[in-house]
Amino acid sequence: MAKLDLMVGETPNVPRIFRIGFGAKAQARAMMEPILDWPTERVVMAHGAPVFGDGQALLRRTFDWLF
Fold first, then answer.
1. Distance between CA atoms of residues 24 and 26, nearest Å
2. pTM of the model
């Protein structure tokens, strides 16, 4: 199920149902902007393999739907 909903794979993503039903995008953008500026190298996710390099780029790709 996670694979079909793009939660795992080369570029993990936020589940489609969350993206479709998300109504507070402006508030979420305001909260995500400072996080996306953090010097992130590693990302550990609930679904999928950990990312050990360039975590900031992964976060930006994962949350691009929000912007």
1. 6
2. 0.69
Q: What does R_g of the chain's alpha carbons equal in angstroms?
A: 12
CA distance 48 to 51: 9
Dihedral of the alpha carbons of 20, 22, 48, 50, in degrees to the nearest 10: 140
Whether residue 26 is predicted with pLDDT greater than 80 in this model: the reply is yes
Sequence letter at residue 20: I
Length of the chain, please? 67
Q: Residue 5 and residue 10: Cα distance in Å, rounded? A: 13
Q: Quick check: 52 and 41 in contact, CB under 8 A?
A: yes
Phi, psi dihedrals of residue 51, rounded to the nearest 5°: -110, 125
